[in-house]
Amino acid sequence: MTQIARVTPTITAGAYSQNDVMGGLLTFKVPSTAGGGLLNRISMIDDGQKKNVGKLHLFDDLPATIADNAAISGLVAADLHNLLEVITVSSGDWVDVDAGSRADVSFDYVTYDAPRGNIYGYFELTDGSPTNPGATTEVTFILNFLPREVY
Predict the structure, then answer these.
(1) Domains by residue range for the chain, with CATH
(2) Residue 132: pLDDT above 90?
């Protein structure tokens, strides 16, 4: 059975630039079972309908720390060893629902280990002119996964 891990980070209610990280380090709590599990989908909820496009970089161990609204260039070469997947959220992935928006992106299953019981992520804004959030808690990230004991 698919399970979810949800994160609503504190974000800057104001200007971001291309290649900035939105929300700083995202920490998704997943079971730290032997053999890890499988990832297969991410979702973003945007209560302010900003519908920012970008890339969600997912890691199965703790990467270098990058603050909210700082450039993604803070990643170091050692982080590449723990990089699981980079998932692109494009403008066509967004659907408006009432006053909010939702993007769902499915991908081929990716195996994770999560030795600390977490999947970590950074959302990199890739648009040349990202839309500025209007509230500090208007974006939620959802990770869909199957723990090893399920499959």
Answers:
(1) 3-150 (2.60.120)
(2) no
